[in-house]
Specification:
- This protein has 386 residues and is mainly α.
- It has 19 helices and 3 strands.
- Strands 2-1-3 form a 3-stranded antiparallel β-sheet, with no helix packed on it.
- Strand 1 and strand 2 form a beta hairpin.
- It is elongated.
- The structure holds zinc ion.
- The site of zinc ion has 9 residues, from loops.
Length: 386
């Protein structure tokens, strides 16, 4: 039994309790003699189930009560929601269709029921029907809940252009939805590289300081051969979120490739990043530069000092690699076995994790494949990670 259903049961019990109060008030007002006992006793029976920690029976009981009360539109909507949460989509759809058939619904409530029905179809995988209803609702009135559902539907189907087209036609876009538009633009910029700037420039209007956007801008600049602009974007990205340094590192490296003075400039930027985020991936890159610049002994000293403060398996592997390059006769077979074992441990570990739902991944996703949240996946730091 989930917390949501328990909450729903409590909520309905309160709603029905309120209803009982209203009925009693009405009867007293009109001096009616109709007995109110049956409704009250049903209500208390439901409450009893809750008190006795029998939430399943309580929900079943309240559902039966709500089904009997076909007059109240709000309670019928709650009832259908409850059906949907329990996976009883046919029953939820029936309630909504029954409501839509009523001639006395106001335009506002009709719109609300349409959206609820679309949600039933969406939950049941009937995406076309859900989309049709939502687009119809959207043509009548701009509503965030409708936009949110449409975005979820298109994101699931990877229909990024649809997200963009809808956003273009909106008078107002909430901050909650704007990151989703940025996400769609980034996806499109990767798929259609020749138009990447137009997508990214459009996205910048919504969330100019999105880390994901800066990353994709840097990628597009590198594609266009403009490493100076790419570097500017990456520097901005790191000031916004230092934890993303390992993700941005491969692009940073590309910025300096092919440049005449790349070595010194690259080391300078890398040292700055190291000050902000001394992760093993940055340290490891520095070790390689020190190797070229100052020799193996200097690289070994830097890495050993680093590992004393921040022990990590990737760092240890690099240390073994450096030792293997030495001329002294050591037990190379044992060292290699040790190195391979460490590599195996690293490979098997997840390198990224969603901050929202905890989803673990071996590669970077800008949208979590599990909870669909944008920019929620971040590198995992620690003994075995980056
Ligand atoms: Zn997630």
């Amino acid at each position: 039994m989930s917390d949501i259903l328990i909450f729903a049961a409590v909520f309905i019990s309160l709603a029905v309790g309120w209803g009982v109060g209203r009925y009693q008030g009405l009867f007293q007002l009109n001096n009616l003699t109709k007995p109110i006992q049956p409704l009250s006793s049903k209500y208390f029976k439901g409450l009893n189930y809750l008190i006795n920690e029998e939430p399943d029976q309580a929900i079943h009981h309240f559902i039966t009560m709500l089904e009997d009360d076909s007059e109240s539109v709000d309670l019928q909507i709650i009832l259908a929601k409850l059906f949907r949460k329990q996976g009883e989509l046919d029953r939820a759809i029936t309630v909504h269709q029954r409501l839509l058939a009523r001639p006395d619904l106001s335009d506002e409530v009709r719109q609300k029921v349409h959206v609820e029905l679309a949600q039933d179809y969406y939950s049941g995988g009937l995406h076309d029907r859900a989309e049709q209803l939502l687009l119809e609702a959207h043509s009548h009135e701009e509503s965030e809940s409708v936009q949110e559902l449409l975005f979820s539907l298109w994101e699931e189907q990877q229909e990024w252009q649809q997200v963009l087209d809808l956003a273009k036609g909106l008078k107002h876009l909430s901050p909650k939805l704007s990151l989703r538009v940025v996400g769609a633009c980034c996806k499109l910029s990767v798929s259609f590289k020749s138009d990447s700037y137009s997508y990214l420039n459009f996205a910048e209007k919504f969330q100019p300081d999105s880390v994901m956007l800066h990353y994709h801008f840097a990628e597009a600049h590198l594609q266009a051969g403009n490493s100076r602009k790419a570097l500017k974007r990456l520097k901005r990205l790191i000031t916004l979120d230092q934890a993303m340094a390992p993700v941005a590192l491969p692009l940073l490296k590309q910025c300096f490739k092919g440049r005449g003075v790349w070595f010194n400039s690259y080391r300078e930027v890398l040292e700055d990043w190291y000050q902000l985020n001394p992760s093993i991936s940055i340290a490891s890159e520095l070790v390689q530069l020190i190797m070229v610049d100052e020799g193996k002994d200097a690289a070994l000293i830097f890495l050993t000092e680093y590992l004393k403060i921040r022990p990590s398996i990737p760092g240890l592997v690099q240390l073994v690699d450096l030792h293997l390059k030495s001329d002294t006769q050591q037990d190379q077979a044992t060292m290699k076995m040790f190195r391979n074992l460490c590599r195996q441990i690293i490979e098997e570990r997840h390198k990224f994790q969603c901050q929202k739902c905890g989803y673990l991944a071996n590669q970077m996703y800008w949208q979590c494949p599990n909870c669909r949240k944008w920019e929620s996946i971040r590198p995992v730091f620690g003994l075995e990670a980056k």
